[in-house]
Design a protein that fits this description.
Number of helices: 14
Number of strands: 0
Amino acid sequence: MAAKSKNAIRTSTSRIVFLVFNAVFFTLMVILCFYPMWYVFIQSLSESAMAVKAVVLPVNFTFNNYVQLMQMPEIFHAFLVSVLRTVLGTCGTVMCCMFAGYLFTKENIPFRKLIYRMMVITMYVSGGLIPTYLVIKEYGLINNFLVYIVPSLIGAYNVILIKTFIEQLPKELEESARIDGASTGTVFFKIILPLSMPIAATIAIYASNSQWNAFIDNQLYTSANSNLTTLQLLLYNYLNQSERLIAQLEKEGVSSAEMSKILTPRGIKMTVTMISVIPIMCVYPFMQRFLVKGIMIGAVKG
């Protein structure tokens, strides 16, 4: 009996040590992950001249950085363009990839394996910048809003995840629907799509994040049309202009008091980061419960 009680004490002690270690370790991990974003946030809320001293809390708390940035011309139009391309691009990508993944599960599709392998090859080999530009030009997408949507409708990685996910769904559901006279479209929209919401939400997160942060296509394909400027490119251009402006003011000998009222490049970087990150971060809480399930189910098989 004495031996059993000693083992129980040792077990409980080791268990407590393990739990304490776990708590400390994961607390440190949370701090390491959270602090960089907090640091950027407090820097954006600090006075430009004192932002460097903001380590834990804002120094000389002010919304001046955000106010000045929001006074940029065309910023709300650029924000609307970014939101529109994110919403339409995400919906288009999810639907096209879902339908393509579903078709690739059908063995009676002509040249299915060949087309699938050619699609997979695009994950490793790209056509290059100039050929891609020429293709976009031939399709008449230069200075066209559709250039943000059409090239990203099909993604090889997304299709692979969806195909793998759909293959693990019970085939009897589709067979029974076929017996009742359901068409391919009916089966897809009323059976496959509702059952594939976890992987669809996962793809939606990937697509929305990619669409929201993209600005290279704006530089390459729509630079001649200012109405198609996205928020990210507008903020990037404003950051470059601000750096030149600050350098010019320093050469002209502007006083430090006046310089503190001007949005500095550091303040712009921090404020731009928050403005760019916060909207897309709002998507994750709604999709988080689907994300892990979709990744696990879509990646384990095959």
